[in-house]
Amino acid sequence: MKILKILDAELVLVDLEVNLGDNKQNSPTLCAKYNGKIIPLNTPDGRPILMNIDNAI
């Protein structure tokens, strides 16, 4: 493994609300704040996901 580039991002903890069927649920979610957008780093049930700008809120 090697570091290709250091990105200027900030880690934030947000209270994220998601629709699961007919129900709405919220949970604390670790996110990255990058270029003014919030990118979740895990799913609502806690599974990690890759930081991808396409997932930005």
Contiguous helical run count: 0
How would you classify the helix and strand content by structural class? mainly beta
**Cα-based radius of gyration, to the nearest Å:** 13 Å
The span between the termini is 29 Å
Helix percentage range: under 10%
Order of helices and strands: EEE
Low-confidence stretches: none
**Order of strands in the sheet with most strands:** 1-2-3
Largest sheet: 3 strands, antiparallel
Strand fraction equals over 45%
Shape: elongated
Could you tell me the number of beta strands?
A: 3
In round numbers, the mean pLDDT is 87
SSE layout and pairing:
Blueprint: E1 10-20, E2 23-34, E3 37-40
Antiparallel strand pairs: 1-2, 2-3
What does this molecule look like?
This protein has 57 residues and is mainly β. It has strands spanning 10-20, 23-34, 37-40. A hairpin with a 2-residue loop joins strand 1 (10-20) and strand 2 (23-34).
Based on the model shown, name its key terms.
57 residues; mainly beta; three-stranded antiparallel sheet
Précis, in short:
The protein has 57 residues and is mostly beta strands. 0% of the residues lie in helices and 47% in strands.
